[in-house]
Amino acid sequence: MPDSETPTPSNETALARQLRLLREGCMHCGKCQRQCALLKRLGSPGRIAEAVAQGDDLSAAAYECSLCGLCDAVCPTQVSPREMFLELRRDAVRRGTGISPTHSRVLNYERRGTSPRYSWYGLPEGCDTVLFPGCTLAGTRPAAVRRLFSMLAEHVPALGIVLDCCAKPSHDLGRDEAFHAMFDDMRDWLVERGVRRVLTACPSCQAMFERYGNALRPQTVYELLTQNLPSEAPETRARVTVHDPCVLRHDEAAQAAVRELVRRTGCELTEMQHNGPHTLCCGEGGAACLVAPDLALEWARRRTAEADGLPMITSCAGCVNRLAPHGPTMHVLDLVLDPQRTLAGRARIARAPLTYLNRLLLKRFFRKTLVVRDMRTRLQRG
């Protein structure tokens, strides 16, 4: 195993460090390659790192990686191919070769989310906790977000709301400077006004706040819901399974909370082979689906095959969108709020372009109903 405590040479770049760790630590055992179609094609992470170190340009291949981290999870020496691919993306952006026209869709989505028109922050007097629902949930399920806020506000004094994008698309595409300009601005504004906890409904947002939130402590809303929902279960008696989002593959508290909520709806839970730290990507991760749709489709089909016809319950609205065309997939918040309707496949889920109107209406709702001390919209775009 490479010694992660070994001092990094002063002139070693982040990419060079990841290449060195992979070259030193990869055993070429094939465990990660057996899990990932991309690595089956490219070779072991150690050989990839060696090729890049020798001058091969594999930046295009880096954008085919879903950044799901399954390779990291199964690695016996605990090196991180995921971090290597992310640094390859960042290096490509710095050289002006990373972003392609195929990425415009996700970047436009992010720009809209961080724009003055769609963003809004509302902090009541004494607010130290905010709900951060994320982009997709706010657009596809605005009524659920309103109900969620009301439920949480019964137990969290002076709860605030932040309607904004966490800028994970820029982060994952390697646009490091743009990401930090957006995320750090959001984080610093909240911290300066006394916010210390962020309640997330989106796993991607949770992951960004965990890694870059600093003084902000993120917690998923699902953990709070387990503390405040009735423990007695309705008579649904449905058999379901849980799809753990790959960005939270190591978040045991969030995973346990989703399973507890599933049980409280009266459902019988059957686990898939790949769950928890070894969960599979839905195919949307890292925006790889935009440049490698064949690999994304393979992830979705593998996930659906493991479900073996059972409805998949997940805490990620993006995963629902990606997996639903391949098999019954439901958001855990839909299940909690209306189990019968959700299990019957009749949950109210909006589609684009209506999702954008929903986000504007949700913003208007909170602006009219929430009494705030501090408020703002974004003043800049990434």
TrEMBL record:
UniProt entry tagged with the keyword ATP-binding: no
The alphabetized UniProt keywords are: 4Fe-4S, Iron, Iron-sulfur, Metal-binding, Oxidoreductase
Q: List the source organism.
A: Desulfobaculum xiamenense
Question: What PROSITE patterns is this protein classified in?
Answer: 4FE4S_FER_1 (PS00198), 4FE4S_FER_2 (PS51379)
> Tell me, what is one Gene Ontology molecular-function annotation carried by this entry?
4 iron, 4 sulfur cluster binding
Q: Name one Pfam family in it.
A: CCG
Gene Ontology terms: cellular component: plasma membrane
Tell me which domain of life the UniProt entry assigns to the organism this sequence originates from.
Bacteria
What protein name applies here?
Answer: Fe-S oxidoreductase
Q: Does the keyword Metal-binding apply?
A: yes
- List, alphabetically, the PANTHER family matched: IRON-SULFUR-BINDING OXIDOREDUCTASE FADF-RELATED, IRON-SULFUR-BINDING OXIDOREDUCTASE FADF-RELATED-RELATED
All residue ranges annotated as the 4Fe-4S ferredoxin-type domain in the record: 56-85
